[in-house]
Known about the structure:
Layout: E1 6-10, H1 14-26, E2 30-34, H2 37-47, E3 51-55, H3 63-73, E4 78-83, H4 88-96, E5 101-104, H5 109-168, H6 175-203, E6 214-216, H7 218-235, E7 239-243, E8 251-253, H8 255-271, E9 278-286, E10 289-296, H9 329-339, E11 343-349, E12 353-361, H10 368-374
Parallel strand pairs: 1-2, 1-3, 3-4, 4-5, 7-9
Antiparallel strand pairs: 6-8, 9-10, 10-12, 11-12
Helix pairs in contact: 2-3, 5-6, 7-8, 8-9
Amino acid sequence: MEVTGRILIVDDEEIVLDSCSEILRAAGYAVATASDGAQGLRQVEEFRPDLVYLDLKMPGMSGMEVLERIRAADPSVVTIVVTGYATLASAVEAMQRGAYDFVPKPFTPEELRLITRRGLERRRLVQETMALRREQEMLREHFAAIIAHEVKSPLAAVQQSLYLLAAELREALTEAQRERLARLQARLADLLQMVDTWLRAISVDLRGIRERFRPTAVADLVARAVEAVQPFARRKDLQIGTALPEGLPPVVGDEVTLVQALVNLLHNAVKYSYPGGSITVAARVEGEQVHIGVSDQGVGIPPDELPHIFGAFYRGRAGMAGEVGAGLGLAVTRKIVEAHGGVITAESTPGKGSTFTVALPVAGQAGQVAVGLDRPAASLEGAA
């Protein structure tokens, strides 16, 4: 008979071990048993079960400790706790700690076979999900490598050659030829900037930046971001003003990526502002967060597009003539803000402008960082 699953039973009652083993082996499963927690953990290492039936009430090591150590060793192993009616509360606690289900004593052979099939199906789904995540990670890494080496490097080489060509032919070119060469260089620069944006979106290690977290002054973040965007604002005769109250508490984070997040928002404000307008960066304290808002008086965003603007590669309908982007700036900004335990929202009125607000925990509220990292991306959709 073909073995369809590996089952480990950990229980101090010999009658439970014998009866369960007989039922499960008859159903085609490979079965191992252990009479206490320590022996059970050794079997987990040696037998490599897909599913573990675990008694919570055993002498020596508690079932709850065994459960936690199994989860730590291999979180894909499905654990089902076996318990008497008097310990149902413990069974519920075990499920909160990662057990898949519980089966109260006594149970019938059919109940045991049914929950075993469900548990093994759960194990299969968990393994498929983990494999899919590994494939996605490999694809992401390979795609970044392809972009970096097969696209960016040739473009950079062409750009370098154009620089040399322009210098060598400076005296020989006509005015019209110089203009065409300048347009060629500008378009190439746009392409390289877009490739850099893709690479940042693909390769940014958001969990890795936590190692660089430290208290950071909001005023310094804003000043560096404004300085980086000023040249672009001047080209459209835009004024960037700031409104930062005295005594703003610092936030905890990585200065480089937080500046990048604000630069992205400011670039967006510049891109979609009318020439001669103004952009404001304001900050305030609300509860245990610092809210940093970037407001413009530009074209605004239609209400039906607001829930989607933080998605990768999303490009809205509204826009200024000639303004193009990869649709990644806001997605990268959202990832950075979430990595800091923060939230980003947007408000907008078409024709009047938009305000993007980044809310970050103040220094001393670092516990919120973990919450932000685990928050599903979809939670931000509709935040505006």
